[in-house]
């Protein structure tokens, strides 16, 4: 019978155990980084949505101050974070004015502001109001 000496026994971790540990660690790091990127995207999206809502609200207030007979639809305009027309802005503002079907002497006014969302998408904030135009 042969007796194993200390030198003949294997102590410690095998190469397979080390590889499995490295793979599991890599999967954990990738998952953590992708969820972190998603959370940053959500935070950025919320900020852009709040800015777009602010642009839409302030422009709707400006439109409400106009004489009702002069209300007309406008082409899309690129604006910056303050709502000022700027070709390098990332927001696109559109004004649509049309008749309101349920009220004969009213106009339906829609302000759309398109904003950049996470992962290259674009989303829209829409404000709608009805403005009485009076009898003709």
Question: What is the topology?
Answer:
Elements: H1 15-64, E1 74-79, E2 91-99, E3 106-116, E4 122-132
Unreliable stretches, pLDDT < 50, 5 or more residues?
Answer: none
How far apart, in Å, are the first and last alpha carbons?
A: 115 Å
Rg, Å, rounded: 30 Å
Order the strands across the largest sheet as they lie in space: 1-2-3-4
Oligomer: single chain
What structural category do the secondary elements indicate? alpha+beta
H and E string:
HEEEE
| Gross geometry | rod-shaped
How many strands, which pairing sense, and closed or not: the largest β-sheet?
Answer: 4 strands, antiparallel
Number of strands: 4
Number of helices: 1
Tally the structural domains. 1
Q: Into which percentage range does the β-strand content fall?
A: 25-35%
The percentage helix is: 25-40%
What is the arithmetic mean of pLDDT? 87
């Amino acid at each position: 019978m042969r007796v194993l000496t200390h030198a003949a026994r294997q102590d410690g971790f095998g190469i397979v155990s080390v590889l499995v540990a490295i793979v599991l660690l890599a999967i954990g790091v990738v998952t953590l980084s992708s969820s972190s990127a998603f959370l940053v995207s959500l935070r950025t999206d919320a900020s852009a949505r709040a800015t777009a809502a602010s642009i839409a609200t302030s422009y709707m207030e400006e439109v409400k101050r106009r004489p009702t007979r002069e209300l007309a639809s406008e082409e899309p305009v690129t604006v910056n974070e303050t709502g000022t027309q700027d070709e390098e802005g990332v927001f696109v503002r559109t004004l649509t004015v049309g008749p309101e079907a349920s009220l004969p002497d009213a106009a339906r006014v829609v302000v759309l502001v398109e904003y950049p969302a996470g992962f290259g998408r674009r989303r829209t904030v829409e404000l709608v109001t009805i403005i009485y135009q009076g009898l003709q």
